[in-house]
Amino acid sequence: MARNRRRLNCITPPYILRRLVDSDDAEVRQAALSTLLATAQLRGEREIRGSFTGLGAAPVDGRRSIFDCATGTVLQRATLARSESDAPVTDKSVDRAYDGLGVIRDFYRDVFARNSIDDRGMRMHGYVHRGVRYNNAFWDGQEMVFGDGDGRIFTDFTGSLDVIGHELTHGVTEFSAGLEYHGQSGALNESLSDAFGSMAKQWYLRQAAADADWLIGPDVFTPGIDADALRSMKAPGTAYDNKIFGRDPQPAHMDKYVQLPDTDEGDNGGVHINSGIPNKAFYLVATKIGGNSWESAGHIWYESLRASQAQAQFQDFADTSYRKAAELYGEGGTAQLAVLHAWSEVGIQITGVTTGPDAPETPIGALSRQIEALATQVQAIAADVRELKAKS
Amino acid sequence: MRVTLVAYGGLAAAISLHRPPAVVDSASLAAGPAGELSRLVDAAISADAHRPAGSDSGSAGSGSGRDVVGYTITVQRAGTSSVLKGSDTDASPAFAALLAWLQAHT
Q1: pLDDT > 90 in chain A, percent
Q2: By the 8 A CB rule, do A183 and A242 touch?
Q3: For A67-121, how does the pLDDT look when each residue is reduced to its tens digit (9 = 90+)?
Q4: For residue A82, what are the β-bridge partners?
Q5: Dist CA B9 CA B60 (whole Å)
Q6: In this predicted model, which residue has the larger pLDDT, A12 or A68?
Q7: Rounded to whole angstroms, what are the CA distances from A329 to A47, A109, A323, A341, A361?
Q8: Identified catalytic residue from A125, A129, A143, A167
Q9: What global pTM score does this model have?
Q10: B70 at interface of A, judged by CB pairs closer than 8 A
């Protein structure tokens, strides 16, 4: 009878290999390098150049320039306020944007070996003090723009590291999957910005997934506003509930998917609304796996982003993340099961995989059962031995 | 003349969906501001009329901009209604001037 051999964690995650390349031990370094090369050659799906950019990148890649709009709205008229390696200035918004972009750049470089927004060292341009009492931050296709807020409801948008990460990640998405900004692909685009923005903040704070707040924009409101944040990834639909804003409309499950017109007025089909569903899925994956979100969960999401098509729907991304979890951490392993159950909990079943009591047993599940049975037998034998000793 | 401003989209788009439009009625303004508003409206309508055919009239969801805020300004006067659209990344100078005035006065 042919044996059905399945892989169990036989692939070392690339980020660990990349760390090992920096090892003090020459043998470890060489082994990690060989494995990285062999993996890239065998799979043919990863660009070895991309894996190495972070290691060989000159420190000037992703150079930052912060411009002051001085309440204007025409970016070309803004003046340069601080460049890479410049000393801090007296303008706090300028310094927060400069420092925030630096943290997000380092997060992508150190965790994902990504060299800036386009993975080719693209310069990072941030614009602050845009407009008068402007309540927003956006990515315009080339650069990030931040408003001061009206001071009544919103405050300076450079004050939230996750917001800076959110906007920069729109650029990362644009240069990778290019997810179309409407309907489910648009909601995925928004969700990925939230996920990587939150992850970057957790990474900066060295905070485990279980300890993080999973809030997006907790610092954008003035102190008098009764709201936790713009969105909650942990509990979509609970970020605020007050007279000014109404109740947070984000759903956490496909049953509550909000159908809105695919127009500007309809938020392009609710891209900022339905992002609550994949947001919750990512939170569940990270907390089910445990530890730090930017490790296993982050790598599964990052590789899924890179592997996605521009028109990807929630189902496509869920299926891709399930496949990437197996490729990175083993078929049927803890990470893949976390992905499977996380998507199931938000109402998305992985294509071709059954969950619930009738689900086929995974290799890990079968192994656990065998170990449990063996442990019972060992305990029984030990009891017999004790009994025999007592009699003799 | 009654001018209505609706803003949508942006990082806080979910909040914008719940917020009422801003409305200015020129009848309630002093002569100076009312005249200024009228001039700004005329300029914005004229600029909109001269947009190249087939342009998307300031769509916030178009192009590669993300979290961009879109604006619709509706002007009602003398029994006619004009609808002007723009966004943070796509607005004529005349539209931007009218938008800034409305934001400062509502």
Answers
A1: 75
A2: no
A3: 999 999 999 999 999 999 999 999 999 999 999 999 999 999 999 999 999 999 9
A4: A66
A5: 7
A6: A68
A7: 19, 21, 10, 16, 18
A8: A167
A9: 0.81
A10: yes
How many degrees, rounded to 5, is the angle at CA A189 between CA A94 and CA A218? 45
Say if the Cβ atoms of B88 and A135 lie within 8 Å: no
Residue A29 shares a structural domain with residue A114: no
Query: Between chain A and chain B, how many beta carbons pairs sit less than 8 Å apart?
Result: 106
| Pair (A70, A143) in one structural domain | yes
Report the range of poorest mean pLDDT among A214-228, A253-267, B29-43, B52-66.
Answer: B52-66
The phi-psi region of residue A217 (left if phi > 0; otherwise alpha if psi is between -120 and 50; otherwise beta) is left
Distances in whole angstroms, Cα of residue A107 to Cα of each of A80, A321, B9, B32? 25, 21, 28, 53
Separation CA B76–CA B95 (nearest Å): 16
Distance CA(A184)–CA(A169), nearest Å, equals: 17
Residue A303: inside a domain:
yes
- pLDDT attached to residue A148: 97
- Determine the residue of chain A that is closest to B63 in CA distance: A141
Exposure class string for A61-82: b at 16+ Cβ within 10 A, else e: bbbbbbbbbeebbebeebeebb
Residue B1 reports pLDDT greater than 80: yes
Distance CA A15, CA A256 (A): 36
Chain-chain contact of B64 with A132 (C-beta, under 8 angstroms): no
- A268 with B61: Cβ contact below 8 A: yes
Compute the distance between CA of residue A213 and CA of residue A233 in angstroms, rounded to an integer: 9
Question: Considering the domain boundaries, does residue A168 fall inside one?
Answer: no
Helices (H), A128-182: 161-174
Interface confidence, given as ipTM, is: 0.89
Residue A302: what residue type?
A: Y
Cβ B96–A140 below 8 Å, yes or no? no
Nearest to A156 by CA among A167, A145, A165, A166: A145
A272 carries an active-site annotation = yes
Work out the mean pLDDT of chain B and round it to a whole number: 89
For residues A198 and A297, membership in a common domain is answered with yes
What region, left, alpha or beta, does residue A289 occupy, with left being phi > 0 and alpha being psi -120 to 50 degrees? Answer: alpha
- Domain interval for residue A109: 58-159
Question: Would you say B14 and A231 are in contact if contact means Cβ atoms under 8 Å apart?
Answer: yes
- Asked, for residue A171, whether it belongs to a domain, the answer is no
Task: Return the SS3 of A106.
Answer: helix
Best probe of the A interface among B5, B6, B11, by most A CBs < 10 A, is B11
| C-alpha span between A179 and B95 (Å, rounded) | 30
Q: How many residues does chain B have?
A: 106
Instruction: Give the range among A22-31, A314-323, A345-354 with minimum mean pLDDT.
Output: A22-31
Give contacts of A182 with chain B, Cβ < 8 Å.
Answer: 61
Instruction: Please list the alpha-helical segments (H only) found in A125-238.
Output: 161-174, 183-205
The per-residue pLDDT of chain A, averaged, comes to 86
Asked if residue A130 is part of any domain, the answer here is: yes
